[in-house]
Design brief:
Strand content: 15-25%
Function: Required for vacuolar assembly and vacuolar traffic.
CATH superfamily of one domain: YVTN repeat-like/Quinoprotein amine dehydrogenase
GO biological process, one term: macroautophagy
Helix content: 25-40%
CATH architecture of one domain: 7 Propeller
Main location: cytoplasm
Strand order of the largest sheet: 1-28-27-26
Distance between the termini: 140 Å
Subcellular location: Cytoplasmic vesicle, Clathrin-coated vesicle; Late endosome; Vacuole
Radius of gyration: 65 Å
Number of helices: 37
Pfam families: Beta-prop_Vps41 (PF23411), TPR_Vps41 (PF23556)
CATH topology of one domain: Methylamine Dehydrogenase, Chain H
Length: about 1000
Amino acid sequence: MTDDIFKDGGTNGNASESHETDDDNDDDVEGRSEEEEDAEEDDREVTESVGGEDAEDDEDDGDVDEEDEDEEEDEEPALKYERMGGAINDLLKKDSVSALAIINKLVALGTHSGIVHVLDLTGKRIKSFKPHQASVSDVEMDSTADFVATASIDGQVVVHSLSSPESYVFDMKRPIRTVALEPHFAKKTSRAFVCGGMAGTLVLREKGWLGHKETVLHSGEGPIWHVRWRAHFIAWANDLGVKIYDTQSQSRIAFIDRPPDSPRADLFKCTLYWQDDSTLLIAWADHIKVARLRSRPHPTASASGANLPPWIVEVTAAFDLDCMVSGILPHPMSSPSFPKENGSVASATTLTSFLIIAYETPDTYGDEMTDDRARQARKTAERPELRIISRAGEELTADALSVTNYQSWSCNDYLLAEVDPPGSTDAGRCYVVASPKDIVIVRPRDRRDHIAWLVEHQRYEEALDEVERLSEDERTSEIPDSRIDAVQIGERYIKYLVGEGDFVKAARLCPKVCGQDVRKWEEWVFVFAQKRQLQAIIPLVPTDAPQLGHLVYEMILGHFLNHDKQALLQTTREWPKSIYDISAVIVAVHSELDRTPSSSSTSKPLTPDVVLLMECLADLYTANRQYGKALPFFLRLRKPNVFELIREHNLFTDVQDQALLLLEFDQELVEKRRQEGQETNQSEAITLLVDHTHSIPAGRVVQQLRARPLYLFLYLDALFKKDQNLASDFADLQVTLFAEYATSRLIEYLRASNYYNLEAAYNICRSRDLVPEMVFLLGRMGNNKKALTLIIERIDDVQQAIEFAKEQNDDDLWEDLLKYAETRPTFIRGLLENVGAEIDPIRLIRRIKNGLEIPGLKEALIKILHDFHLQISLLGGCQAILNGDCVDLANVRQKGQNSGFFFGAKSRCPLCTEQLQRSPQDLLLLFLCRHVVHANCIDNVDNLPRYLDTGFDACIRTPPAHEVSAKIAFASVVRAKVHQGCPVCLRRGEGTLV
């Protein structure tokens, strides 16, 4: 599996220009030769394949299978890399790394010059000091990162405090290869550590009352190559194998032997790493073992079990590799930072996966004893690899590392350390790989890196899914990362899909990608339009929040107009009318309708496209408040609400040229109701036309309806019923229409109308042999005799002849009728039964010839006599009633005039508006009309004689006869003076007397 490890100029890839050094290290910071710099630049290339071949080697290897390369490129790497920047390049220009330790994100580097540099992960140097005169072979820091223990080839072990003057130096006389501090060294007063080296002795030193006490834990089996201390267990490696010591029981509890065919221990170092308090990882040469410690069960009472150590060590995994191991660390992957597909790294790894530095030995390895000088010459090494190995020894991933001068380094030159992850999660897990000239920071790829890889490999859909799975904290906790910008990824995905021709899927992404961005929406809509795939994005184009420009919506409607008229209608109904220019759309639709042949013909049936265009125009005109222009389309489309539309928006002027369409549509509705069994009243269209003749002139309607005589008849008939004057100009036409469509009602019209031409009407009736109508017209023209002749000869109806004679009130006509009836017994009888005040019965009886037999003559005569008696009786009774009523009314009048009149003290004179009783001497005049006025308010009444009244008491008692006579005489004098009657009534024109 391949991946770009890092690139020159990338993140933290270039060395910082900082030159911060201690005085002790000034001599060590010098420029390198041009050859070294050129070699380093050549080595700073990112590897492209598993195994890390050189660029030249890759060019020579031209037979690589392309399919295999494609498969490898499709596999996602598990780790990401970056060079440590800061001061590290300046520090290693002349010096080189020999030992590495990391605690609390502080990196302690031991160099071959005996210097120790303390840096942070960015490469910033915190402190440098020189505890040794030779190469630092091992470095370890306590858990607080305060104390740094170093072992050196110069035979010394130094424990140095970074925050205090406390420091310990121990001279072991022989080169020391490894050192380990006791757990929580800074908190312990014992200040214990263990070290070993070429002397073959593992020494435990701890501080006591009298100085440091030295205890030899093991010796005699060759040099001590590596030692590590965890909890109360100390593990070390010598030429024979690995041993574990328990500081609590002060006993050695296990020995794990080294395979007998193992290569030289000094050429391929042993790496020990405590994964936890009970698990030890052992990597030596090409062999890996996992040792797990567990408590021994309670020993039995036997003597043999009493001396057994309290712990049991089991090798739970052991396997060989095809490479040498320069370093090993556990790589927990049970809770990966991002999910992967089946068969990927995350699904295959377990808690006990291992991260190793794999070193490929040269092909001539093991030929040191040959005499061939060429084979004895040192061969260039291969690029180291950082591999993830499963518990079963299966290689899961392998990334080749391009480090500076890798050709010159051996297996022991590479170092691997783990940066403490924050908290209990693996999200911040980090590793450091060191070569003599490089420090590389290695991190597990997180979800962000996974998203970036998916985008890089054009797996945009998976990338978007991963972005959605990111929690809000993951998105906002760090500096914004463009790699997880869903909008940018979505845009790239849309571009990719458009390039692949998958426009439907691309369109579905637009709402997520464009969101509320109007500009992006418009850009993508135009892209789809240019690709002639507008129909794919149209259903997703927003009409609100955000609202795009009018041009976008009009372009979409134009697309529907040309390709899908049903969608055009539906869209115009659903979309808000404010988002596009309705007038522009109306013009476009109208233009399309005009190009359709059947749209202008009223006789041909409408095609589906024409119907859709008309409905669209009707809706658009209505939305644009141009109801008059929408009306013709509603009529042609037979919309039931057309009459409500006309009335609601007062479209009577607009409908004046649509009378025929309106009636045709209305008659269809009437016929439909009749078929459904509903009652049909007068045509709604005709009612509308008749009720609004001021807006819809009758002449204009008649002109349109001449082609449809039946509609014209219905219209004129309704118009005549409403007002004869409105239909006066069309009376002759109406006679013709009545004769054609309502013959039975023609006589009614002839009787009711006075505007038609009698002669023209008579000719029409004669042409159709309408005798009653002809009789009526002849009568109106004054040709009564001819009319009577028609009644007698054609109708033979004596009753009608009599009624006709009555109507004309012509004595000569009666004479003609009597003369005609002389020879016809039926007419004689009819006349006798129906004569009245118009003809004297004696006149008819005398014309009856002797001997003429008249059926029913006796009954007719008896009826005539009975009618005359009844008439005389009725006249007498009426006269008696009239006389009685006159007497009663006269009595009522007399009583009313003679009765008294009451008025109040506050009553006022209607002439002067003052109170009537101003003083007892005022003379008041009472008229029969009940008006009371002051006498002096009337002209010519000033010299009236005074009539003295005795007051109100005199009115109560019965007056004597002489007083009554005096009153009558006085009233006569007043009447003579007031000869014009009541002045109040005179003003009103009534003239009532006193």
